[in-house]
Amino acid sequence: MLSYDYIKCTDLRNVFQELEEGQQVYPLAGGTDLIVGMRGGKFAPKTLLDIKDIPEFNVLEENDQGITIGAAVTLNEATTFAPIRDNVPVLAEGCHSVGSYAIRNRATVAGNICNASPAADTAAPLYCLDAVVNIVGSDGTRSVPIREFFTGPGKNALNKGELVQSILIPRPYPEGKGVYFKASRTGSVDLATVGVAVQRWGAQVRIAIGAVAATPVRALSVEKAVNEKGQKDWTEAARLVHDDISPITDLRGSREYRYHMVEVLVRRGLEQTMGV
């Protein structure tokens, strides 16, 4: 039987006080991974700190800087937010790919990246959009590019006592189509065996991939061939992705299967965004 204290915070000052003074304090926003981890014995909090009602964490807005997604904003809220749906639909597709509808009503975009799973569905779209993670702690705020936020499997750039406050999708937004493809064992409600985001930026392309390395990665070899060398044979371009990844074999798929699926999905993404 799990035993822990539950504290609901509505002020950032209270959050940092509890984080600094308490022991084994776990922030709770969506909780979809935290609760499962507690039941499985992965996490053993003495205190759950409910941060869902903190105003700074519930911001979902568009301004001159871009689109800000607060730490307590759910995946479904992000998916249906008009500025995301209209300007960066690749992120809406990534958000929609996570779990079931019920899970997306609880799970947050920030939580999806804070878990730092290499297979996080929102990570590849965020990489393509050059997203920025805004971090808050008792000493103030700082911002980290999304490509520096993931530091390893299950590891991120947060220091002790820090929390993600929001994610910024900066302007200018991409000019062109973006797509997110996910290969998984069940077709839905499962972690990605491979996740590929392809985003056109005018005449150029950005490609990011999840579940094929210790962190999400950009397919820089493919991007260079298309953007700098003018490669228009998407099959040939997609083969270069093998130079950018280092997949493993696990219960979701073999190393060889991941190599194959990444090539297929990158080619398909190039066809749909850059033209057949």
Write a structural description.
- The structure is a single chain.
- By secondary structure, the protein is of the alpha+beta class.
- It has three domains: 46 residues, Uridine Diphospho-n-acetylenolpyruvylglucosamine Reductase, domain 2, CATH 3.30.43; 116 residues, Uridine Diphospho-n-acetylenolpyruvylglucosamine Reductase, domain 3 (2-Layer Sandwich); 97 residues, 2-Layer Sandwich (Enolase-like, domain 1), CATH 3.30.390.
- Helices cover 33% and strands 25% of the residues.
- The protein has twelve helices and 14 strands.
- The chain has a five-stranded antiparallel sheet with strand order 4-5-10-6-7. A four-stranded antiparallel sheet has the order 11-12-13-14. The chain has a three-stranded parallel sheet with strand order 1-3-2, covered by helices on one side.
- Strand 13 and strand 14 form a beta hairpin.
- The longest helix has 20 residues.
- It is globular.
- The termini are far apart.
- The mean pLDDT is 94.
